[in-house]
Specification:
Blueprint (H helix, E strand, L loop, with lengths): L5 E4 L5 E5 L5 E5 L2 H7 L4 E7 L3 E5 L3 E5 L7 E5 L6 E6 L6 E5 L13 E3 L23 H27 L1
Parallel strand pairs: 3-10
Antiparallel strand pairs: 1-2, 2-5, 3-4, 4-9, 6-7, 7-8, 8-9
């Protein structure tokens, strides 16, 4: 894990960040919660271990917001311009960041690997031919296939860390 895969920032440039490796996986979520939260038709989130996310400049403010699961999500926002940069969800907590791909300096570096919750997708959003898409969320078997050996190993390492810390 050497070098920088990508850089990103908030609008006012008070917070800059580096992704120290390629994301594990990138979701394009079409759920109504993401639509409301983003003010758009979907949210594109690149999953990466938080330890592979290096913050420069100001520290983000963590804002706890409701989620469909009822467990909430912590959104890292710039305290000045309020731009959402990444989120942490309940399952892996602060160990896994869901980086808003639109906050990358080059968002094309994190194209969606999968489209989820397409049952609530806006009818005018047309998915690319052949895109991996699910009406809701994908199964564990689908994850095994889509994440590949490296992505699965990285996810497993995070799950093991959480398990160890819970003991």
């Amino acid at each position: 894990m050497t070098g920088t895969f990508a850089t990103g920032r908030c609008d006012c440039r008070a917070i800059r960040y580096l992704l120290l490796s390629r994301p594990i996986f990138t979701h394009c979520c079409h759920c109504s919660w993401c639509q409301r939260e983003s003010g758009s038709a979907f949210a594109v989130n690149a999953m990466i271990e938080t330890r592979r996310l290096q913050v420069e400049g100001d520290a983000p403010e963590m804002v706890l917001t409701p989620s469909a699961s009822g467990k909430g999500q912590n959104i890292a926002r710039c305290p000045t311009c309020r731009v959402a940069l990444w989120s942490h969800y309940a399952t892996l907590g602060a160990k896994l960041a869901f980086v808003r791909a639109g906050s990358l300096d080059d968002p094309s570096l994190a194209p969606p690997d999968v489209h989820i919750f397409t049952s609530t997708k806006q009818p005018w959003v047309v998915l690319p031919a052949g895109a991996e898409a699910y009406l809701e969320y994908y199964s564990a078997a689908d994850r095994e296939r889509m994440f590949g050996p490296e992505g699965l190993a990285r996810r497993a390492a995070l799950l093991e860390e959480v398990k160890r810390e819970a003991c």
